[in-house]
Write a structure and sequence with these properties.
- The chain has about 180 residues and is mainly α.
- It is built from six helices and no strands.
- Helix content is about 85%, strand content about 0%.
Length: about 180
Protein backbone atom coordinates (compact mmCIF):
# COMPACT_ATOMS: atom_id res chain seq x y z
CA UNK A 1 0.00 0.00 0.00
CA UNK A 2 2.84 2.26 0.84
CA UNK A 3 4.42 1.55 -2.49
CA UNK A 4 1.20 2.48 -4.33
CA UNK A 5 0.92 5.78 -2.41
CA UNK A 6 4.49 6.74 -3.14
CA UNK A 7 4.01 5.95 -6.84
CA UNK A 8 0.77 7.91 -6.88
CA UNK A 9 2.36 10.96 -5.25
CA UNK A 10 5.35 10.76 -7.53
CA UNK A 11 3.18 10.83 -10.71
CA UNK A 12 0.60 13.29 -9.30
CA UNK A 13 2.52 16.38 -10.53
CA UNK A 14 2.66 14.89 -14.03
CA UNK A 15 -1.07 14.11 -13.94
CA UNK A 16 -1.83 17.64 -12.79
CA UNK A 17 0.46 19.10 -15.45
CA UNK A 18 -1.21 16.93 -18.09
CA UNK A 19 -4.67 18.05 -16.91
CA UNK A 20 -3.58 21.71 -17.05
CA UNK A 21 -2.15 21.23 -20.58
CA UNK A 22 -5.32 19.47 -21.78
CA UNK A 23 -7.46 22.22 -20.24
CA UNK A 24 -5.24 24.88 -21.88
CA UNK A 25 -5.51 23.16 -25.29
CA UNK A 26 -9.31 22.94 -24.99
CA UNK A 27 -9.50 26.64 -24.07
CA UNK A 28 -7.13 27.54 -26.92
CA UNK A 29 -9.28 25.60 -29.40
CA UNK A 30 -12.44 27.39 -28.18
CA UNK A 31 -10.69 30.74 -28.42
CA UNK A 32 -9.48 30.04 -31.97
CA UNK A 33 -12.95 28.88 -32.95
CA UNK A 34 -14.46 32.09 -31.56
CA UNK A 35 -11.86 34.17 -33.37
CA UNK A 36 -12.65 32.36 -36.63
CA UNK A 37 -16.37 33.06 -36.14
CA UNK A 38 -15.68 36.72 -35.41
CA UNK A 39 -13.50 36.96 -38.53
CA UNK A 40 -16.20 35.25 -40.64
CA UNK A 41 -18.82 37.63 -39.24
CA UNK A 42 -16.59 40.55 -40.19
CA UNK A 43 -16.19 39.18 -43.71
CA UNK A 44 -19.94 38.66 -43.98
CA UNK A 45 -20.71 42.17 -42.73
CA UNK A 46 -18.18 43.59 -45.15
CA UNK A 47 -19.68 41.57 -48.00
CA UNK A 48 -23.22 42.60 -47.00
CA UNK A 49 -22.19 46.25 -46.97
CA UNK A 50 -21.31 45.85 -50.64
CA UNK A 51 -24.03 43.45 -51.81
CA UNK A 52 -27.05 44.83 -49.95
CA UNK A 53 -27.11 48.12 -51.88
CA UNK A 54 -26.65 46.19 -55.13
CA UNK A 55 -29.52 43.85 -54.22
CA UNK A 56 -31.73 46.77 -53.26
CA UNK A 57 -31.00 48.37 -56.62
CA UNK A 58 -31.87 45.08 -58.36
CA UNK A 59 -35.25 44.93 -56.62
CA UNK A 60 -35.88 48.55 -57.56
CA UNK A 61 -35.05 47.85 -61.19
CA UNK A 62 -37.34 44.83 -61.33
CA UNK A 63 -40.22 46.84 -59.85
CA UNK A 64 -39.51 49.51 -62.46
CA UNK A 65 -39.52 46.85 -65.18
CA UNK A 66 -42.90 45.61 -63.99
CA UNK A 67 -44.28 49.16 -63.78
CA UNK A 68 -43.04 49.90 -67.30
CA UNK A 69 -44.72 46.80 -68.78
CA UNK A 70 -47.96 47.40 -66.89
CA UNK A 71 -50.29 47.79 -69.89
CA UNK A 72 -51.82 51.12 -68.83
CA UNK A 73 -48.39 52.64 -68.17
CA UNK A 74 -46.88 51.19 -71.33
CA UNK A 75 -49.73 52.48 -73.52
CA UNK A 76 -49.27 55.97 -72.11
CA UNK A 77 -45.54 55.88 -72.70
CA UNK A 78 -45.54 54.23 -76.16
CA UNK A 79 -47.60 56.24 -78.62
CA UNK A 80 -49.86 54.54 -81.12
CA UNK A 81 -50.28 57.68 -83.25
CA UNK A 82 -49.97 57.02 -86.97
CA UNK A 83 -49.37 53.28 -86.55
CA UNK A 84 -51.46 50.40 -87.76
CA UNK A 85 -52.55 47.84 -85.19
CA UNK A 86 -49.97 45.41 -86.61
CA UNK A 87 -47.18 47.97 -86.29
CA UNK A 88 -48.26 48.99 -82.79
CA UNK A 89 -48.53 45.34 -81.78
CA UNK A 90 -44.90 44.83 -82.80
CA UNK A 91 -43.80 48.04 -81.04
CA UNK A 92 -45.49 46.91 -77.80
CA UNK A 93 -43.96 43.44 -77.96
CA UNK A 94 -40.57 44.96 -78.69
CA UNK A 95 -40.97 47.32 -75.73
CA UNK A 96 -41.79 44.42 -73.38
CA UNK A 97 -38.91 42.33 -74.72
CA UNK A 98 -36.42 45.21 -74.46
CA UNK A 99 -37.47 46.10 -70.92
CA UNK A 100 -37.18 42.49 -69.84
CA UNK A 101 -33.85 41.86 -71.57
CA UNK A 102 -32.42 45.07 -70.13
CA UNK A 103 -33.20 43.87 -66.59
CA UNK A 104 -32.67 40.13 -66.96
CA UNK A 105 -29.41 40.15 -64.99
CA UNK A 106 -31.27 41.28 -61.86
CA UNK A 107 -32.48 37.71 -61.34
CA UNK A 108 -29.19 36.79 -59.67
CA UNK A 109 -30.13 38.99 -56.70
CA UNK A 110 -33.56 37.52 -56.00
CA UNK A 111 -35.13 34.16 -55.31
CA UNK A 112 -36.05 31.82 -58.15
CA UNK A 113 -39.68 31.94 -57.02
CA UNK A 114 -39.97 35.70 -57.38
CA UNK A 115 -38.04 35.74 -60.65
CA UNK A 116 -40.36 33.06 -62.05
CA UNK A 117 -43.30 35.25 -61.07
CA UNK A 118 -41.72 38.19 -62.92
CA UNK A 119 -41.25 36.02 -66.01
CA UNK A 120 -44.82 34.73 -65.76
CA UNK A 121 -46.11 38.30 -65.51
CA UNK A 122 -44.20 39.27 -68.62
CA UNK A 123 -45.79 36.33 -70.44
CA UNK A 124 -49.25 37.36 -69.25
CA UNK A 125 -48.75 40.89 -70.58
CA UNK A 126 -47.46 39.54 -73.91
CA UNK A 127 -50.44 37.17 -74.11
CA UNK A 128 -52.84 40.03 -73.37
CA UNK A 129 -51.34 42.20 -76.12
CA UNK A 130 -51.38 39.26 -78.56
CA UNK A 131 -54.96 38.28 -77.71
CA UNK A 132 -56.24 41.84 -78.10
CA UNK A 133 -54.41 42.26 -81.39
CA UNK A 134 -55.83 39.03 -82.83
CA UNK A 135 -59.37 40.05 -81.85
CA UNK A 136 -59.17 43.23 -83.96
CA UNK A 137 -60.32 43.49 -87.57
CA UNK A 138 -57.50 43.29 -90.10
CA UNK A 139 -57.13 46.99 -90.98
CA UNK A 140 -57.33 48.39 -87.45
CA UNK A 141 -55.28 51.31 -86.20
CA UNK A 142 -52.82 51.32 -83.35
CA UNK A 143 -55.24 53.44 -81.34
CA UNK A 144 -57.83 50.65 -81.71
CA UNK A 145 -55.39 48.16 -80.18
CA UNK A 146 -54.53 50.54 -77.32
CA UNK A 147 -58.23 51.12 -76.66
CA UNK A 148 -58.99 47.37 -76.68
CA UNK A 149 -56.18 46.64 -74.21
CA UNK A 150 -57.29 49.41 -71.85
CA UNK A 151 -60.94 48.35 -72.03
CA UNK A 152 -60.01 44.75 -71.24
CA UNK A 153 -57.98 45.82 -68.21
CA UNK A 154 -60.75 48.10 -66.97
CA UNK A 155 -63.44 45.44 -67.40
CA UNK A 156 -61.42 42.71 -65.71
CA UNK A 157 -60.25 45.16 -63.00
CA UNK A 158 -57.02 43.16 -62.75
CA UNK A 159 -53.56 44.65 -63.04
CA UNK A 160 -51.48 41.84 -64.55
CA UNK A 161 -48.30 43.10 -62.86
CA UNK A 162 -49.67 43.83 -59.37
CA UNK A 163 -49.03 40.37 -57.90
CA UNK A 164 -45.43 40.27 -59.15
CA UNK A 165 -44.75 43.78 -57.84
CA UNK A 166 -46.15 42.72 -54.48
CA UNK A 167 -43.97 39.57 -54.45
CA UNK A 168 -40.82 41.59 -55.23
CA UNK A 169 -41.63 44.08 -52.48
CA UNK A 170 -42.30 41.29 -49.98
CA UNK A 171 -39.01 39.59 -50.72
CA UNK A 172 -37.21 42.92 -50.51
CA UNK A 173 -38.71 43.49 -47.06
CA UNK A 174 -37.49 40.06 -45.95
CA UNK A 175 -33.97 40.74 -47.22
CA UNK A 176 -33.77 44.20 -45.67
Amino acid sequence: MMNFMSIFFSILPFLLLTAVIVWFLIMLEKHLKNMRQIRMLGVRLSKDAITLPVRLHAYERVVLLLERITPANMLLRVSSQGLTAAEYHQVLLSEIRNEFNHNMSQQVYMSDTVWQQVKQTREEVVNLVNRMYHELPENSRGTDLAKRILETILVSDVDPTAAAIHAVKQEMKEVF
